[in-house]
Amino acid sequence: MPESGRCLVMGVVNVTPDSFSDGGQWFDADVAIRHGLDLVAEGADIVDVGGESTRPGAARVSLEEELRRVEPVIRVLSQEGVTVSVDTMRAEVAEAAVAAGAKLVNDVSGGLADPAMPRVVAATGVPYVVMHWRGHSRDMDSRAIYSDVLTEVAEELRKRVDSVLAEGVREEQIVLDPGLGFSKNAEHNWALLAGIAELSDLGRPLLIGASRKRFLGRLLAGPDGEPRPFDDCDDATLAVTALAAQAGAWCVRVHSVRPNADAVRVAAAWRAAAVPHADEGR
Ligand code: PMM
Q1: 1 lies in a domain?
Q2: In a domain, 203, yes or no
Q3: 103, 83 in Cβ contact below 8 A?
Q4: Counting atoms of ligand 1 from 1, which one is nearest the CA of 179?
Q5: Which residues carry out catalysis?
Q6: pLDDT digits 0-9 by tens, 40-49
Q7: Which residues approach ligand 1 with their CB closer than 6 A?
Q8: How far does the centroid of ligand 1 lie from the alpha carbon of residue 147, in Å?
Q9: 3 located within any domain
Q10: What CATH code is carried by the domain that includes residue 239?
């Protein structure tokens, strides 16, 4: 993984016709590749390529179709020297993606959707994003029930870590993600963002995916209560990025890369400047 001493920026390329925030825009392989290269030019450290929409209510795509969508894009971007991650819940897709050059597996189900996933990731040795997940998109909103979301998400992530370790994944491979919007309502998402420090106590780097999600549109609703459209939530995403980076997130997953890449640099400068003073007088 790129070593930068600051929060990393993962740019999103959804090779799907129906993703929440950019569905259809990068569905053609050549267009997706060009977009991935543009994101790197804008400052992305990693380009996350996905072929299956996880928007609430989305139906699953077949294995063959998912492979057809992502494999060529990953191969070309990797050949161009881009650090690519594959956003997939399927072990076969993860394996093919790593063979095509992917350097990270981003599994929104944290190994729950496909029991073969942890063993495949263990064999590849690449970093593994284990996201908090309670079920597939078609009915994930009905599982957004918590009495203390931060404690419960941390506990469920801890269990996933134990489980993937038991399948041979090495601890150093694991990155954790609270899974904003996945079986979480707006209140849950804010509690998890406010709990980044506590989630960091799980001992693994944290990835945060807030970009253009529904809870931002709800926060920014107009006087009529209409949520702000997702494509008008990039400034709010940027604010989350700055705060998440300041709170110690390892990486943010975003659609609009350039401003977020600037924000993580600001946060890094801020943190670096704060360190010497923190030691003064001790
Ligand atoms: N969110 C989406 C897709 N993949 N992966 C991780 N690790 N974390 C996330 O929060 C996440 C993800 C859904 O967002 P999109 O469909 O708007 O890209």
Answers
A1: no
A2: yes
A3: yes
A4: 10
A5: 213, 253
A6: 999 999 999 9
A7: 12, 14, 19-21, 54-55, 87, 106, 108, 129, 131, 177, 179-180, 207, 209, 212, 253
A8: 24
A9: no
A10: 3.20.20.20
Ligand 1, residue 53: give the atom nearest the CA.
16
With the most atoms of ligand 1 within 8 angstroms of its CB, the residue from 47, 87, 207, 237 to mutate is: 87
How do residues 171-218 score in pLDDT, each as one tens digit?
A: 999 999 999 999 999 999 999 999 999 999 999 999 999 999 999 999
CB 56 within 8 A of CB 141: yes
Encode pLDDT of 132-167 as tens digits: 999 898 888 888 999 999 999 999 999 999 999 999
Instruction: Indicate which atom in ligand 1 lies nearest the CA of residue 213.
Output: 17
Domain that holds residue 115: 8-280
